[in-house]
Amino acid sequence: MAGLTLAKGNNLSLTKTSPGLTVATVGLGWDPRTTSGEAFDLDASALLLGADGKVRSSADFIFYNQPATPDESVKHLGDNRTGDGDGDDEQINIDLQKVASDVQRIVIAVSIDKADERRQNFGQVRAAYCRVVDQDGQEIVRFDLSEDAAPETAMVFAEVYRNGAEWKFKAVGQGYITGLAGIAGDFGVQLG
Q1: What total of structural domains would you count in the chain?
Q2: pLDDT digit string, tens, across residues 12-58
Q3: What range does the domain containing 54 cover?
Q4: Checking CA distances to 106, which of 64, 113, 155, 166 falls within 20 to 30 Å?
Q5: Is residue 41 part of a domain?
Q6: What is the DSSP letter of 19?
Q7: Structure confidence by residue, pLDDT tens digits, 69-119
Q8: Residue 192 within any structural domain of the chain
Q9: Could you please report the per-residue DSSP string of 112-168?
Q10: How many of the other CB atoms lie within 10 Å of CB of 71?
């Protein structure tokens, strides 16, 4: 059964919509448009933010090369290097009961690997989406990105955040022309 579809800027209470939710799987999907033949490699990441809107340390930046937080509350489930096939291309699990109490938001971002070198951007990506499924695989909520993001090489797709005792999902869809470095800089991640 399909979940509720949100428009950009809308949010949904995961706690109220799916009262038994303990592990939220954030699924991300995309398909490259036909291009010059250069491979497209999109990478999902998650940033755990404190009340100041910044990561607490570099351990709060989860991606294919650092696939889990030390407490394993957030786990990247694997890098899909081509975007081929149906269904989610990459997934990030969030164990809502394990997330540290000083984490207020978990930002879900996707960036295009080697975007400048390959002259690629989100205008060349179609059918991009972000969804949350519960531990039984039931889709709770979905956000289909439909805007033309031609100059942008990275994008915050969504965020999962606390609102009092609730966990909520927000459809963000904010692009960055500065790639993953721009997202990392905005949220306080020091890149190597």
Answers
A1: 1
A2: 999 999 999 999 999 999 887 766 677 888 899 999 999 999 999 99
A3: 4-187
A4: 113
A5: yes
A6: T
A7: 999 999 999 877 665 667 899 999 999 999 999 999 999 999 999 898 888
A8: no
A9: ETTHHHHT--GGGEEEEEEEEE-TTS-EEEEEE--S--TT-SEEEEEEEEEETTEEE
A10: 11
